């Protein structure tokens, strides 16, 4: 996983809420610096526990290969590379192991933020308004669609907050009727607390999750990252 030192150096104000279902996880967050660009991946691999952790390690290895070894710069081309490597290694007999996720590139020279997303759309809150940013409706891995991932740009004003998450929070059962938390309620929670200090936001999101889950079992890995940009 990305070290706290690396994240603090490149992201400034941010929080990471990471709750694996087991000791090891199919959700991961990973980062690297390359030529004045900072890449942050927030991903959800097929499976959790040991199988999910194995896929996490493999996908981290392919991300590292694309950015550090191959020198691929655009987030969409990086995801294309990871998908191809997954298909080469796992999909000879039709296996569809892979991941959903988002890869964000912070270009320090151009002062631009670009990204590519497989299913998991980033959330941007600006001036009290929440926007679900575009994402591709296909995973990183073998699927019915194998189009090139789209490269997206994030237009923001200072003090905006960018949220990146996997599906574990929204899919958690709980509350008075034992139902899923759902994305609509999660996004409303993000918007309601987006103006608070980052550390305070993390506490709110952790407490809300625990209260919702109550005595029920956590059903999946949970990952939520907030970044003030």
Order of helices and strands: HEEEHHEEEEEEHEEHHE
Largest sheet: 5 strands, antiparallel
Average pLDDT for all residues? 94
* Strand percentage: 25-35%
Kindly, what is the distance between the CA atoms of the first and last residues, rounded to a whole number of angstroms? 22 Å
Low-confidence stretches: none
What's the shape?
Answer: globular
By DSSP (H or I, 4+ residues per run), the number of helices equals 6
The structural class is alpha+beta
Q: In what order do the strands lie side by side in the largest sheet? A: 1-12-9-6-7
Radius of gyration: 17 Å
The number of E-state strands comes to 12
Fraction of residues in H or I helices: 25-40%
Give the secondary structure arrangement, pairings included.
Elements (H helix, E strand, L loop, with lengths): L3 H8 L2 E6 L7 E8 L2 E9 L3 H21 L5 H16 L8 E9 L4 E7 L4 E4 L2 E4 L19 E2 L7 E5 L2 H4 L1 E2 L4 E2 L2 H11 L4 H16 L8 E7 L1
Antiparallel strand pairs: 1-12, 2-3, 3-4, 4-5, 5-8, 6-7, 6-9, 9-12, 10-11
